[in-house]
Amino acid sequence: MMTIDTPTPESGSDVAANLAAVRDAIAEAAREAGRDPAGVTLVAVGKVQPVEKLEAALEAGQRVFGENRVQEAKAKFPALRERYPDIELHLIGPLQTNKVKEAVALFDVIQTVDRPKLAKALAEEMAKQGRRPACYVEVNTGAEPQKAGIPPEEVGAFLETCRTEYGLPVSGLMCIPPADEEPALHFALLSDLAKRHGLPVVSMGMSGDYETAVRFGATHVRVGTAIFGARPPKE
Length: 235
Description:
- Helices cover 43% and strands 15% of the residues.
- The chain is of the alpha/beta class.
- An eight-stranded parallel sheet has the order 7-6-5-4-3-2-1-8.
- Helix 1 packs across helix 2 and helix 4 (100-106) packs across helix 5.
- The longest helix has 21 residues, at 12-32.
């Protein structure tokens, strides 16, 4: 008896189709803003997603990925890199200083530099390993007490510390706007801060608002569920 395979949210064909749709939406938003779509990098966020979905994205040509946790990335990406050596891996979640050694060895970009102690630890570990992942400073644009990040008014001083005192390779800023506020206001603020401090990279925008982020100058958008579907429930 012949059966017909129907794509499910977990299927590779759905991931490829979702990826194409997100890329199209990014390109359209960029053109509407008078920008070159090639100036926007899509970071596919694989947080708690199975390796099979990441493989589907890789087969569809995606090479830039983001992970929230060092240990999860360590479990998934070394094997994937053996087959796809041109993967670029971004850490987009909080980094504890006791994970700095692994993070420097594994990631190409660390987007969440948010305190002097971490900046110092990263600089020391980069010197030991001879490896210098690009760094972005996380900015707490909403001044949320429960959230990590440098307050907007302290970005200049923190950048000076990172660059002058630690020699850290900081090339951009990132933010996660408050869930209950208009993200455009925060995207405008982050873009302005980046321009003011001569930083070429602005990482902002996720599945629900990445098109708005592109219109406000995002160079990197971090998109997970719009590509891979809903995250599996925690066991």
